[in-house]
Amino acid sequence: MAFLRAIIVAFIVTGVLDLITKRTSKKTDSIDKFVVRAPIDFAALGAIGMVVVIGILIFCEIDGTVIPELVMVIFFMVGIFPGFLLMIAPIEGVWDVIVDDDDITVVKAFVYRRHWKFSKITYGKMKRGGMKVYVEGRTRKAFFVDAMCEHFSNFMERMEKEGKEVIYPEGMEPYTEEEMDVEEEQAED
Q1: Mode of pairing for the β-strands spanning 103-108 and 95-100
Q2: Number of continuous H segments (helices) and E segments (strands) in the chain
Q3: Are residues 111 and 145 in the same domain?
């Protein structure tokens, strides 16, 4: 029962933090000052998962069913942990890429911070889930910008404005104006 109480408290606390994050987050079209952060939709998915987990645990508690330890460990790894991670993802400081003019600050897990300059970016490499960003003096990626996060489009626009090269894998290249015009004409016919 103590385990169930801890899950319910974690669910409520992260839910309140997500609501506060939603109320304080600002949408911006600026390409000079913005924050790339996980969308609040992630928290909703995590909340759905956590409600299912809490419901199953309450049902087992009421029914008097004892859950074996191995099943509980698997249940934790498959249901509880991913749901909790989804719920905390949109909270400020969990995973942010903060762009403030030429300064870029990458924040992970509230404590890990790395600072970069936009002017030092050499190129970006698009991958399946987002863009790996490389800076001068490093052969490994400096940081990753997730394409599902809010303000990713601002980051892409800023890369284009600054004239930074973005390398696309074969078959993932963006449409050119001519290709978009041809598709529009075909859609009208």
Answers
A1: antiparallel
A2: 6, 8
A3: yes
Q: Are 96 and 89 in contact (CB under 8 A)?
A: no
Provide the CATH number for the domain around residue 116.
Answer: 2.30.29.30
Q: pTM of the predicted model, to two decimals?
A: 0.70
| 99 and 77 both lie in a single domain | no
Please count the structural domains in the chain: 2
Range of the domain at 43: 2-88
Helix/strand/coil for 110 = coil
Give residue-wise pLDDT tens across range 68-115: 888 878 877 887 888 888 888 888 888 888 899 889 999 988 888 999
The predicted structure's pLDDT at residue 42: 82
Three-state SS for 131-185 is EEEEECCCCCCCEEEECCCECHHHHHHHHHHHCCEEECCCCCCCCCHHHHHHHHH
pLDDT in tens, 140-164: 999 999 888 888 889 989 998 989 9
d(CA 83, CA 69): 20
